[in-house]
Each structure stands twice: as C-alpha cells, then as structure tokens.
Design a protein that fits this description.
Distance between the termini: 46 Å
Number of domains: 1
Strand content: under 5%
Structural class: mainly alpha
Order of helices and strands: HHHHHH
Shape: globular
Radius of gyration: 17 Å
Number of helices: 6
C-alpha cells in the first residue's frame, strides 16, 4: 500500500507540474481560454488515467523499461484527456493541438519521475512473449470499447453535451 501511495503521489505531482505549464499556455491567447474548473478537473481526471495507464503498461502489458513508461503514460493521459474534450464538443483544432501540447507538457516531468524513481515503479518479474502479445490485443480491444462507451456517455446520456446534434 505504501508503494502504491508513492506511485500515485508521483503521478499526481507530474499532473500538477504539467498543469502549471498548461495554465500559462491557455492564458497566452484568447482562443485557448478555458473555464477555471478545467484545471482542477484535468488534474483529477489526468491523475486517475495516469495511474491506470501506468498499471496497464507495467502490469498488464509488462513494459519494464522506465523510458518506455515515461513516454507511454503521458501519451495515454493526453489521449484520454483530448478524447474527453472531443466528446464534450470542443473545436477539433483545439483538441488536436492540445493532444500534442499536453503530451509535451507532461513528458519532461514523466521522464524525470520514471527515471529518478524507477525502484518505486518497476517490479522484478518477467512474462512470456506469447502472453504479452495476447495482452496487447486485449488491451487494444478494451481501449476501443472504452472509447465507444465514453462516446455514448457524452453523446446520449449527459444532456447538453451533444456533439453531433
């Protein structure tokens, strides 16, 4: 439990530091303006998805290289954040621009955290190649199903978030 709390705290730290940079980027132009709740929600949403992404990459897909984790976790966080904003009806240019920007905002902190604290993040077990391939396939299918459910939730269940109507 202590190790889990350290991992969660370091991923939360990555989100907070990246969000500080994001605040200045969003403040740089009127076209990038977002409501103040955006930053609070982004930290919470990003930390949860960051922790889940870390566990999927490390435990389920068995990525043991800290550099690969440092690239994978912020990439998945950026992807999940921008998927959420796409389904909320934000402008496509905004969504795709900030997909890249969010990844780049989190990457230096992620790289530093996963390299510096790799003993906290990496266990010492291994897995067979066939099992790893199967897990990748199931992960991709699960990711696509999650995106479809996310789309249905924001399109049909939450009133006022209709992107296509």
């Amino acid at each position: 439990m202590k190790r889990f709390l350290k991992q969660a705290g370091l991923i939360l730290l990555m989100m907070v530091l990246g969000t500080i940079i994001d605040y200045f980027v969003h403040s740089s132009r009127a076209a990038f303006y977002v409501e103040p709740e955006y930053f609070r929600n982004k930290i919470i949403f990003g930390a949860v998805w960051g922790l889940l992404s870390f566990f999927v990459l490390r435990d389920w897909l068995h990525i043991r290289n800290p550099k690969q984790l440092a690239w994978g976790v912020p990439a998945l966080i950026a992807l999940f954040l921008q998927t959420k904003y796409f389904y909320q009806g934000r402008d496509n240019f905004f969504v795709f621009l900030f997909l890249v920007l969010h990844f780049l905002m989190f990457l230096p902190f992620s790289y530093w955290i996963f390299i510096r604290f790799q003993k906290i993040f990496l266990p010492t077990t291994t897995i067979s190649t066939a099992s790893q391939r199967f897990r990748w396939i199931v992960f991709i299918i699960g990711f696509l199903v999650a995106q479809i459910l996310f789309f249905i939730y924001f399109t049909y269940i939450i009133p006022g978030y209709h992107r296509f109507g």
